[in-house]
Amino acid sequence: MAKRAMASVKLTRLEARTRVIRGAGSIVFVVFCMAIGFVVVATAFPQRRELEKLEAKLKLAKEREEKVLADREYHQIEHRALREDPAFLEIHARDRLDYYRTGERILRFQHDR
Q: 54: helix, coil or strand?
């Protein structure tokens, strides 16, 4: 009977050690997963900053492109008018060469550029 009691105590101690080892293993696994999560998050921050910089550059490039396209459209319209509209051609030439007819009043406005 003493052997059975001793075996029972040894078995209880073995079970307790097994529970401790399993608990420690679970804790180590959780800590490992958290460390991996922190590494992933830490590596995402520089990429996020780079993405924001690239998006800002893209926005500036699109704004410049819109400005250039608007300027191009203006010049195309002006070129077409100079070729096809004699009244516009006359007005443009008179303005550029400072010609005026007698009795005509010329008003000039300064553009802020």
A: helix
Max Cα separation, the chain? 137
Provide the residue ranges of all domains of the chain, joining segments of one domain with +.
2-97
**Which stretches does DSSP call E strand in 1-113?**
none
Q: Which of 109, 112, 89 is nearest to 99 (CA)?
A: 89
Q: Which helix (H) or strand (E) holds 10?
A: helix 2-84
The answer for residues whose C-beta is within 8 angstroms of residue 93's C-beta and 6 or more apart is: 99
User: Binning pLDDT at 50, 70 and 90, where does residue 28 land?
Assistant: very high
Q: Reply yes or no on whether the pLDDT at 95 is more than 90.
A: no
